[in-house]
Here is the input.
Amino acid sequence: MLGAVWSLLNPVVFLAVFTFVAKVLGASVDDYPVFLLSGLLAWNLFAVSLSTGAQSVVANANLVKKVYFPREILPLATVGVALVDFVLQSMVYFAFLVVIRYGFVLGSIWLYPLAFVALLLLTVAVTFWVSSMNVRYRDLQHLIGLALLVWFWLTPIVYAAGKTHAQIVAPGHRWGWLFWRIYLLNPTAWIVFGFQRALYHSPDANKALAPFTAQQLGVGLCVVIVILLFLLYATWRIFFGLSGDFAEEL
Amino acid sequence: MSIAIEIADVSKRFRMYREKPSSLKQRILSGRVRAEDFWALRDVSFDVAEGEFFALIGQNGSGKSTLLKVIAGILRPSEGVVRQRGRIAGLLELGAGFHPELTGRENVYLNAAFLGLSHRKTDAVYDDIVEFAELREFMDTQVKFFSSGMLVRLGFACAVHVDPEVILIDEVLAVGDEAFQARCLDRVRTFQKEGRTIVLVTHALDMARQLCDRAAMLDHGVIHAIGGPDQVVREMRRTISKHDLEFAREEGSREIEILGGSLHRGADPLAGALAPGECVTLQVDLKANEPVDDPVVSFALHDGANNFVFGSDTAQHGLALGRVDGKRRVRFQLGPVPFTGGQYWVTVGVHSRDNQRVYHVQDQRYSFEVRQTEGRRDQTYVPVTAEVEDL
Here is the structure.
């Protein structure tokens, strides 16, 4: 029970702080806490799974070396824990949306499950990979911290993708279109686009959100999901291949 | 009878790194990694039938524990496959499958979950487990405070109560006290009667002989012998002794040297095993490096477990060799051999009559084998003639 309290406290504090900050300092995005948390909760699921999942096999060395069980359980369990956090935090967030009478729009909420599926596939796939690689290369977990930091800023969570897009593809910026294309190769960007479009609908949402309609994002996310299915299969094969040696490597 | 465990051409390669890169940094900086292959198992194939009690024996480092881990699924074989049927419970290492931070109770549920038991089914056997382990008052203590004996008891209790079809036991049982070991053996025998399959790794050769239906001996990762436990244990003892032969002691001042000893059946060199009650001749050839007065030649027999069983010498039988110069051949005619099945080791020596000077001793250098008569449990052989007369 105490664990649940901790994970509920996190979004509550976030919402309180950012409501306050947005009011006092002013923000370039309307209803900034709503905007921020729509993407941040998804990111948290991904980042927490990765950083704890990296150690999931190593931390349970005494079990892996001595008992047989499907090794996949270990990274999946860490994703599971992060998923429980995600659900609890989302409940707080939805309650917040209801309390401040922000509400939901039916026209785009259908993107939410799509984005969620993509998020889960990506999280499981990458966690499989890092947890198995970390058995041989123990410093991977430090690299993951750095990689997550960079990746976080490559994902439009705290800044508004729409505004960034407007800036970099503005006339006079020679390579802007190229940067934007590269930016769109990031799967977490698409996932966060999806969550934001599903939940954020302030009057000038179109300026803040990525320049795609809900339909376009839907198609985009479907493509991402198909790619992620292949990725998941590939990382599971890697995990399975390496798991035969776990008991020796640990 | 159907097969419980099928081991087909299983090899297991370990990579031995001189300097194993344990981080990406080292991996990148050190370039190519030098690794040597070490084959812990090589083309191991055999089946264990359902309901069979199978023993794996071998010297340290022969690959028995690796094989057991491969059967348990903890290690994946580099080549070949292992197929098992049914639930496998393993007692592979002390405290295996226990989490030190959890209490005894939580660990029972964890362990049962690993063996595929639901929470409800574990509830049903929980009391039996605690009863068997005799740890009722410790079940709410963290396992890290348990002694090794307590860990073994809890581990064994879990393994036998989850209704496994196959149970794998490594040497952990040796940790428990005698009373507990006796109960474990009892339990294992019940298992055997219930038609479950047991694979045991052990160094206790006599226990293996008493309990098991079949045994395999591993030597450097290959099956060296497989079959009835008596035969395999004998082979094991022979191999161990042969290895020891390199260290077989030879000592003495060498005024007289033993050129060689040999065993004969009648006039022919001994080939094959003797039957109980057969006669054998021990022949010792000597060469004097300088003239020696009145030396005594002696021999001693040890059984496979290195117990002294019999010895004699020329003086005892009133044979004086006189002044020895050059070569001599001494023969001991051993009457009907009273020994039963086993390997016997012969020590021969030559020394002065008062035993003050040892000229030359070859310690357990030669051996012969006596056959065990099928279906008999004789401890010794006594020549018997039977007759009948009318009263």
